[in-house]
Specification:
alpha/beta; Rossmann fold; 10 helices
Length: 293
């Protein structure tokens, strides 16, 4: 597996990075850490481009990036990198790629590939381009205080599964799996099962029905999930609830829950106009949300 952890500045990203590394380490995934810096203003753009062109002619391979060093420092503090004679085990020194991309290639504690990448531009567009260039299984991103705009765009427009890190806590998380009768929910269930086995945690299954005639479907989903988790000896509980979906999820979720759900299956236009359950939970909730695609 290959995970992408997206971060901003050093201080506000520590929680996101720590949470992402915890998940990545448990699942033994390769990790790429992406930092997106703001575009250089048009006033300085010509000068910056000229400087870059001149630097390309120099016989040096390294790129001086304060943020890359800060990320490396955070990784060392989290004991995520392999150290050799007191130094970080570097697989490839920082170097420039096409399209204004810088990359730094390190070795993880258990031999995982750890890449630090730096892009310039709009955050969502940069993440989208990164996921197009590289096949990631999961994108991990912190929830900014922008009223949910970035959360909505990332959930809706990023192709891989997305983990929104919100209020990360130093606790043993358990999964709250939200099920409905959809293919995306089945994928979420499979992901929750695999992850629960690797993370050695439990799964609370929540099946919500809005109308009385939907209760049988919800109960069937719960029974099927119970058989699945019992077969693999994953601790579980089943909860059948009636009510509005978003309100019910927010009522049932506990501080140590990591919410797992599928994406909305409605059209992009509908989601843009009226929103979706994952986006609303990402905006209004206080827990990490994993949207499995």
């Amino acid at each position: 597996m290959h995970f992408l952890i997206c971060i901003g500045g050093e201080q506000q990203s520590r929680g996101t990075l720590r949470f992402g590394l915890m998940i990545s380490s448990a699942l033994r995934a390769d990790v790429t850490i992406l930092y997106v810096r703001r575009l250089v203003s048009s006033y300085f753009r010509k000068e910056a481009q000229l400087a870059r062109q001149k630097l390309q002619n120099w016989p040096v391979e390294t790129v001086d990036s304060a943020m890359m060093k800060a990320i490396e420092r955070m990784l060392v503090e989290e004991k995520y990198l392999r150290m050799v004679d007191g130094r970080v085990d570097v697989r490839q020194m920082p170097h420039a790629e096409k399209g204004g991309l810088y990359e730094y290639h390190l070795c993880g504690q258990h031999g995982e590939n750890v890449r630090i990448r730096e892009r310039e531009g709009d955050v969502v567009d940069s993440i989208r381009r990164e996921t197009i260039d590289v096949g990631y299984d999961l994108v991990i991103v912190g929830a900014p205080g922008d009223g949910g705009r970035l959360v909505r765009q990332i959930i809706q427009y990023i192709e891989p599964s997305v983990l929104i890190v919100k209020n990360p806590r130093d606790v043993q998380y358990r999964f709250l799996l939200c099920l409905n009768n959809s293919e995306s929910a089945r994928k979420a269930q499979e992901f929750a099962l695999r992850s629960a086995l690797l993370l050695k945690t439990s799964v609370d299954v929540l099946c919500i029905h809005s109308y009385p005639w939907e209760e049988n479907v919800a109960m069937t989903l719960g029974e099927d999930a119970a058989r699945l988790f019992k077969r693999f000896r994953v601790p579980y509980t089943i909860h059948i609830k009636r009510g509005p979906v978003v309100r019910t999820i927010l009522k049932e979720i506990q501080p140590d829950h990591l919410l797992v759900m599928g994406p909305s299956e409605r059209s992009s236009i509908y989601q843009f106009l009226f929103g979706s359950v994952p986006v609303e939970i990402g905006r209004k909730g206080h827990n990490p949300v994993l949207v499995v695609k």
